[in-house]
């Protein structure tokens, strides 16, 4: 039976895209027409503003992306109403035929990870199709997610080599024998990924590999062939389209590239008057930026 990894590949073919747009709504950068007086400091009215903004983003990018990736932190700031905005956003994205990847970066002792897995990969109100997982606690921290993904036919992206500047402080630590910690985890993930290969050769086990580390990606791809890579770092963090080549397989598949700020706030480059732009102008700028990113990524995929 096919799983969400298969759907990612199939939707990517149908729409000719490997792009995922991150939904990291920051009220400070949301124009007045949408913010409608919501206060970035107190958060009053924030949930409505976030949901209104996300709807505009989703409508603008739906033809250019395989999935949206809500970043949980931006919703948790506002407590119950923020989580409510996340719930509504997930429903809206699905109504537009998009897959949902919760960027939650969870991971804990076994029973707590199992509860997180139920929350994000089950049938509950904030469950999506995919979730990011922090493996720092070890296998009893990440296995409940992998088992839940296998059961539900969903996908878990395990943090492997992250895009941030200090990711090497721990992830690159050399182990006895000389290999880096992230390579040891890559080898372990390949063993686990083999348990749930889908129609297109990819698994319920995915990996986060930063677009800012193409050399590391080359080595990881050689060891970890069965995992779809989630690739953040393109755009606002300085990762270029050209650097994305080693993340993809020979068919130009097997990776999805996420971009948040560069697309969400594209209208800010229209000038100082960005805060007074209309909803239509905002949607147009976001849609054009997403279309441009999709094509730039497609060029390195050989499409
Ligand atoms: O290694 C990682 C893992 C996750 N992220 C998340 O992706 C987005 C990136 O946002 P941009 O605006 O495109 O830089 C954000 O939600 C991060 O939490 C990451 O950047 N790197």
Low-confidence spans: pLDDT under 50, at least 5 residues?
Answer: none
Strand content: 5-15%
The count of DSSP E runs of length 2 or more, i.e. the number of strands, is 8
What is the H/E string? HEHHEHHEHEHEHHEHEEHH
- CATH architecture group name: Alpha-Beta Barrel
List ligands, each type once: the ligand O=c1ccn([C@@H]2O[C@H](COP(=O)(O)O)[C@@H](O)[C@H]2O)c(=O)[nH]1
| Biggest sheet statistics | 8 strands, parallel, barrel
Quaternary state, please? single chain
Work out the count of structural domains: 1
**Strand order across the largest sheet:** 1-2-3-4-5-6-7-8
Bin the helical content.
Answer: 40-55%
Number of helices: 12
Determine the CATH topology. Answer: TIM Barrel
In CATH, what is the homologous superfamily?
Aldolase class I
The computed structural class is alpha/beta
Radius of gyration: 19 Å
How do the strands and helices of this protein lay out in sequence?
Layout: H1 4-15, E1 19-23, H2 32-35, H3 46-61, E2 67-70, H4 73-76, H5 79-95, E3 99-106, H6 110-121, E4 130-133, H7 139-152, E5 155-161, H8 168-171, H9 181-193, E6 205-209, H10 214-223, E7 229-231, E8 255-259, H11 261-264, H12 279-301
Parallel strand pairs: 1-2, 1-8, 2-3, 3-4, 4-5, 5-6, 6-7, 7-8
Helix pairs in contact: 3-5, 3-12, 6-7
The structure holds the ligand O=c1ccn([C@@H]2O[C@H](COP(=O)(O)O)[C@@H](O)[C@H]2O)c(=O)[nH]1.
